[in-house]
Amino acid sequence: MTHTDTVLVVGEALIDIVERDGADAEHVGGSPANVAVGIARQGVSASLLTRLGRDDRGRRIADQVTASGAGIHASSWTDAATSTARARLRADGSAEYDFDIVWELDAAAAEAAAGAASVVHSGSIALFLQPGGEVALATLERAREAGRVVTVDPNVRPALVGDDPRPVAERAFAAATLVKLSDEDAEALYPGVLAAQVLETIAALGPQVVVMTRGGEGALALGASGHVEVAPLRVDVADTIGAGDAFMASLIASLVDDARLLTGDADALHRALRRAVVTAGITVSRPGANPPTRTEVDAAL
């Protein structure tokens, strides 16, 4: 793959209303939107298929996404209000969320957009919340059948995914070429199961590479050449908002840079993981979902 290849990101875009020290601050968010921004900041062509209201919040999201260099698919616009997520920061900088979100997708537009892309990514609320979840899952499945590279980050939100998110997550994993999940996702989907066994369980469904992020412990991956582990970038944490999305965006950019990442090349996988932990580390060192540019990552490697 080359930098002329296009990544299609399918999923929610919303406004994060962050409660901090008794005051509200609004930030552009939504895991897939963050991923699209992160990919574009790595110099890779990206387009976001989402659901945006024709209101001030929707325009702010579109402005940030397009300012990064990513595009907004034309069918993303709606007359309904733009979705929001209220984030309450815990003492350690992590966040818990309350969502006000409606998720709908045009199936024909999703299929057409995926057909024009080399890589198709989805995850988070977009997979689990109906009616759009079924469209997102079917889009991933058709993309994989058509020979596209498909990436998935379940980014499980317990308040939104129902009592048993595993069947939906595993359907997405089965359609994926590469899966990235966090240790929190792993605990939600496979409670009590060791990290290495979670990776093996997911890999058995069909992905060529499975990656688990582990916060301050770095990341672990399973590819055709076996397990690969990397340490985190040590930084002073402002908050963890967008860290996983920045990591995912970096992995996708690495896929575009070097297809050997998928073919069992342990060095390529290690380089991709190292780049991703650096990208995530830079992101958590500053407030909100604000992923770094390729130049910033190169300077920190």
TrEMBL record:
Protein name stated in the entry: Carbohydrate kinase
Domain Carbohydrate kinase PfkB, first and last residues per copy: 7-294
Superkingdom, natural source: Bacteria
Keywords noted in UniProt: ATP-binding, Kinase, Nucleotide-binding, Transferase
Family assignment from sequence similarity: Belongs to the carbohydrate kinase PfkB family.
SUPFAM superfamilies cross-referenced by the UniProt entry: Ribokinase-like (SSF53613)
UniProt xrefs under InterPro entries: Carboh/pur_kinase_PfkB_CS, PfkB_Carbo_kinase, PfkB_dom, Ribokinase-like
GO molecular function, one term: ATP binding
Gene3D superfamilies: 3.40.1190.20
Species in which this protein is naturally found: Microbacterium oleivorans
The keyword ATP-binding belongs to this UniProt entry's keyword annotation: yes
